[in-house]
Amino acid sequence: MISTTMKPVFTLLVMLLATLVTAAEPSLEHLQEQAQQGHPAAQLSLAIRYRDAKGVAKDDAAAMQWAHRAADQGHADALDFVGFAYLRGAVVKRRPEVAFGYFKAAAEQSEQAAFNLGQCYYGAQGTEQDCAKALDWWKKAAAKGHGRAASTAAMALLSGEGVAPDAAEARRLAERAAELNDPCGLIVLGEMQFQAVELDAAKANWTKAAQLHPTKATGHPAQPSGNASAQQGADLLKLIEYRQRKAEPGKFAFVHMPHIHQGYNNCGSTACATFARFQGGKISGWDFKKLCPSPLGTGTDWWHLLDASAKIGQHWKLITFTPDDAGFDEATAMLKRELDAGRPVVVDFKYIGPQYSGGFAGHTLSVCGYIAAENLYILCNPAVATPGLQLITSDDLKDFWRSDYYGARAKAVLSRPAFVIESR
Predict the structure, then answer these.
(1) Which of 83, 214, 316, 331 is 20 to 30 A from 91 in CA distance terms?
(2) Strands 376-380 and 345-352
(3) pLDDT value at 11 more than 80
């Protein structure tokens, strides 16, 4: 209970707080009035409200209408908003060449547009691929305070993916990303420290990453990037012991794999490049993709990936299991045999949900370990921060490891596909 003498003070504090909240969050009516009067910042704020259903029913058409009106006035963040809609293709028809134009128009003023422009150059989205230009734009965005741009540049330089490797510059950019509290940056810097046997520093950065978003005992690969990085921090803390232990067949296995952070829509070729590097190859994800007939920035047929492995002198085979419980039991028995023998396995996942264009998406990644006592598997995922390691429960693995479109010869039959190293 508040005493009589404290009531005036309490009331004043409430009024002050209400004033601050009002100043920080304009009312919908005020935004609508300002937007109608032609103020681009208000138009963009209104677009974001409609997109995110903040205080108003979700309305993607209204969001695009208001964002376009702000973009037409040259508002940099509105240009980025519209560009990203065309890049993603979930609200409007996907047109990467239009997205590229919007990002390019805004990149000098908007750090997010600079990051997205780098993504387009890196992943050949709406333009010819130019990894050097991508790196330049990511560095510009990082200098303006974009942490994800700094961590993405660090990963490209660390693995030499599309650019010459530069460990010193990668470390500088990872430190910049961590300074900006980017969860991916904290993961990457922590990994560089782990490899340098700076264990206390690595633990501190992974702990910090894990505290940025809610985490659970394990996550899953369909999480948003921020949540995935926070969960990665928690997973890496748990995996420190296992990464330093000798395997115990039937109980625990961990296969050390190189990691390459994929570009836009290049998970299949990137996962296969890491698989090839594990076997002594030097190929990058982009060069692996160029061995396949499909254009850069598009999905890759698994039979084309298999053909590409033969072109670089490696011997893989594609095996499949039925999508039922019996098939999963056979598939996980195979996984453990391969992992116990010190060999990772490439698998294909299918994600289902309204957040994906067309209602679903596919993703290729590797299984590189298991912890039998906890019924956990260890993934090496090209879509997340280096070292790409994530823990996944057996139940989630069963749910995600399935595909009906991993290759034309699959004829849309749902199965659990995998690449394994063929015995010679």
Answers:
(1) 214
(2) unpaired
(3) no
Question: Which pair of tokens denotes residue 383?
Answer: 């879509």
Locate the domains of the chain by residue range.
Answer: 147-245, 258-424
pLDDT digits (tens, 9 = 90+) for 103-156: 999 999 999 999 999 999 999 999 999 999 999 999 999 999 999 999 999 999
Q: What is the pLDDT of residue 225?
A: 81
The answer to whether residues 98 and 86 touch, using CB atoms and an 8 Å cutoff, is yes
HSE toward the beta carbon, residue 359, CA cutoff 13 A: 0
270-311 pLDDT tens trace? 999 999 999 999 999 999 999 999 999 999 999 999 999 999
**Nearest by Cα to 102 from 134, 71, 132:** 71
Torsion of CA 10, 14, 15, 19, to 10 degrees: 150
54-83: b or e for each residue (b if 16 or more CB lie within 10 Å)?
A: eeeeeeeebbbebbbbbbeeebbbbbbbbb
- pLDDT tens figures, 185-194: 999 999 999 9
Within 8 A by CB and 6+ apart from 188, the residues are: 151, 154, 155, 158, 174, 177, 385, 386
| 315, two tokens | 């011997």
Question: In terms of CATH architecture, what is 258-424?
Answer: Alpha-Beta Complex (3.90)
